[in-house]
Amino acid sequence: APKMGVVVVHGWTSCRMGPHQMLVKICRQLNREGMASLRFDLRGRGESEGDPLKSHLDGMISDTCAAGDFLRRESGAERLGIVGICSGGNVAIGAATLRDDVDSLALWSTLPFQPQRKVKDDLRRTGFFLTDYAKKAFRAETWKKLFGGKIHFKLIGRVLFGHYAAEKDAEGRNPKDSARDIMAEFGGYKGTALFMYGGNDPEAKGAHEVYSGFCAEKGIRSDFRFIPGANHNFYSLEWERQVIEQSVEWLKRG
């Protein structure tokens, strides 16, 4: 039986494949290294049952804990690692705070929890995309789309300003927030944590500031790495390769 089993958690609106099948690829690499792995669809996502509009962070954490139990039972793994991308990283942290068998975390493009989000991070994100749209304004194809009615102004508005609005579900709660103070509980985490970010992700700097300072203060064994030029979802074969290889090596060490 493998000593380590790894649960892999996708992002908020994604599924068990991950962007450009990145989660499939890391599972294959983990298996080649002799580690059992499990990727799954969170409730209300992909092929899992559940109302997508009723999904929330605490439910995703509960699903991940259940996945960890299943993986250990089926594989015989003694300990667990968790990989999470974007909000899947927040889920991974939340699950690790509820268990005593999680030795290692690999967290990709993981942003601060809702209580730790800062206005300056939202401003940085808006500025990044405004600059990007300004560059596109000088391209001929942009003007063709404009006169052809193919520019979606509502979508652009959501990209630029949607993150300022607090999300609320039918019960009036922010589905991306937890009923627990997860960061406070994370302070007692005894395992290791690898944080990986794209060097060109506009939200990476703020996330790094929050987590690196916290881990240093709490004595959490952690490492923070940036992939030069990479975006939030590591959309190139080289960026993807670096993230997967470094994460697998980290998880092997436990």
Can you characterise this structure?
- Helices cover 44% and strands 15% of the residues.
- By secondary structure, the chain is α/β, with parallel strands linked by helices.
- Strands 2-1-3-4-5-6 form a 6-stranded parallel β-sheet, sandwiched between helices.
- The longest helix is centred in the first third of the chain and has 19 residues, at 57-75.
- The relative contact order is 0.15.
Number of domains as seen in the coordinates: 2
Q: In whole angstroms, how far apart are the ends?
A: 16 Å
Order of helices and strands: EHEHEHEHHHHEHEH
Fraction of residues in H or I helices: 40-55%
Instruction: Tell me the number of helical segments per DSSP (H or I, 4 or more residues long).
Output: 9
Q: Which band does the percent of strand residues land in?
A: 5-15%
Structural class: alpha/beta
Notable features of this structure?
44% helix, alpha/beta, globular, Rossmann fold, 6-stranded parallel β-sheet, 9 helices, 254 residues, single chain
Write the layout of secondary structure elements.
Elements: E1 4-9, H1 22-32, E2 36-39, H2 57-75, E3 79-85, H3 87-96, E4 102-108, H4 119-136, H5 140-147, H6 153-161, H7 182-186, E5 192-198, H8 204-218, E6 221-227, H9 237-253
Parallel strand pairs: 1-2, 1-3, 3-4, 4-5, 5-6
